[in-house]
Amino acid sequence: MSLYYEAAAVLANSENAGGSLKSRIYKNNGLKTSPAQLFALISEASKWSLVLKDVIERCGLLAEEKKLTPTLALLLTHDLLLAKSGVAAHANHALKLAVLRHKARLSAEFTKARLRRGYATVDVLRQAVEQGELVGGDEPSKELYKHPRWVRVNTLQTSMEEQMATTFAGYEKASNFQELQRAPAASKRYFKDPHIPNLLALPPKVDLSKSEAYAKGAIILQDKASCFPAYLLDVGPDDGDAIDGCAAPGNKTTHLAAMVSQRNIHAKRQKVFAYERDKSRAVTLAKMVKRASADSVVVIKPGADFLAANPESEEFARVGAILLDPSCSGSGIIGRDDAVKMHLPVPAVDSAPAATGEKNKKRKRDRETSQASTTVSLRLDDVLSEETPVEGQLSERLTALSTFQLRILTHAMRFPKAKKISYSTCSVHFQENEGVVFRALASKIARARGWRILPRDRQVQGMKDWIRRGVLETEDIDVDIGLDQLQKEEVRNACIRCEKGTEEGTMGFFVAAFVRDVEFVSGYTLSYAGAAENMEEGEEEEDEDEEEWNGFSDGGETIVAAPMQQQAPDAPESRKKKRK
Ligand SMILES: C[S@@+](CC[C@H](N)C(=O)[O-])C[C@H]1O[C@@H](n2cnc3c(N)ncnc32)[C@H](O)[C@@H]1O
């Protein structure tokens, strides 16, 4: 019987205790039950929980059996009605008796619940449950559009053709994206993305985690929007080396490496330097790079701060392209589809007999607790998120984040041979997106080095075709960057956005690219002090970009050359003061 108590304990306090379902089970050495049995019970019961919650509530089980908590009732009812060998306990165990007493009612309610949902037999209902079709029921899905499972074919190891003939053999082609979104959640369908090469959309519950291609890194589960930065950067054989300034866990790094390798037909040696400040995330990055077979292209800088990388270093003399995907508010992130969600039955409020004193208080508290948490949600795996949402008050967070993002971006603009930069976030906030782009364009370093936005009509085809573009919140642009309305409109249209919960099936995302001409570079003195000489009169007063870079990195250790600036040089506050 420890099976049910231990399963209930695994599910208890899921929001505060942390850890994925697998880590809670497989890293717990104190369990009496086999971890596989525990995992199977929880994942199966969660799939059926929408139906079983309904059955238990209509049967009034919780009101009559005080020993049963909502979670225990759900787990036991699952085994009673659906497990081949029934409830796993000896015949006289109190919990087993508590559900057995209601077997006839529970079975009858189960039949009614099935028929109400329009399933003729238990087998047809079982198939629908397995396919993840049971969204809604009595609780309609809030999601208007299904978020597909996006799969990038890793061209460092394989090709789309090879994957179609192996991993996706037997999958049926959807004639359009809407058809794919309407397909049963676990059905074997696919749709080739028209914007990003080597990208497939599959229904959200298709499980590829056990496929050989996934295990060896031939396919990578990566949201469509997250593929935009490397694709937009469009690194060619003549672009030299590339840097990914904020790399872990490495989806964009490996995509960048794949693009570099695929397009390098002249087999010129091109490297991708991958910076990751956080040491533990750098370990994941290294694993991901190895698994994707990108280690011959990628040079990892573990625990190294990109802001401390010396642009003038010999090592970066050939860096022509830089991808920046810095930490952000994460406001565009969509809840993970592979979460295990358990819908719990709610005890009927009036069904408990009146009680007095302490008992009454306790019963009331129990009822309130169980009503407050009618679902339990747990991540299936401990997967390091691509994004790193930062906690705190929103407006303060946005100010701090956008200051940091601007610093990263203007630092990248210092690399002498760089002529392409992509800047992205998984945020939906103007301040972290177009706001940073406008401020970067206004920075002294951008003007000194001739950086400008990559306009829509010069973007790679898929990005040019993408309809969702940037937004303009003119009242928020407190930098006078000397652009007229038409030019601002060009910048807006050059910015690319994705919105979550739309018919495109992406997360919320933002990306823009900056370019400059090599001729422009060669016409200028490349040191920042030299560039300042080319400034128009009075400009020096407005920017202090030269103070941004204050150290250099040597194998991850930052050697600080000057005290860190407290405020970003382009922060609105400092600018406003100067204008006065
Ligand atoms: C949004 S995540 C990057 C996701 C990654 N591009 C991908 O697609 O998998 C931002 C990462 O940048 C790292 N980071 C933040 N600031 C950094 C800095 N100054 N130098 C290097 N890495 C930094 C964070 O630790 C985090 O892992």
UniProtKB/TrEMBL annotation:
Residues 139-517 form the SAM-dependent MTase RsmB/NOP-type domain. Residues 561-571 have a biased composition (Low complexity). This is Nol1 nop2 sun family protein. The active site is at 426 (nucleophile). One of its GO terms (cellular component) is nucleolus. Keywords: Methyltransferase, RNA-binding, S-adenosyl-L-methionine, Transferase. It comes from the Eukaryota. GO terms for biological process: rRNA base methylation. Belongs to the class I-like SAM-binding methyltransferase superfamily. RsmB/NOP family. Residues 534-549 have a biased composition (Acidic residues). The keyword Transmembrane helix does not apply. One of its GO terms (molecular function) is RNA methyltransferase activity. S-adenosyl-L-methionine binds at residues 246-252, 276, 325. Residues 346-372, 533-580 are annotated as: Disordered. Pfam families: Methyltr_RsmB-F (PF01189), NSUN5_fdxn-like (PF21148), NSUN5_N (PF21153).
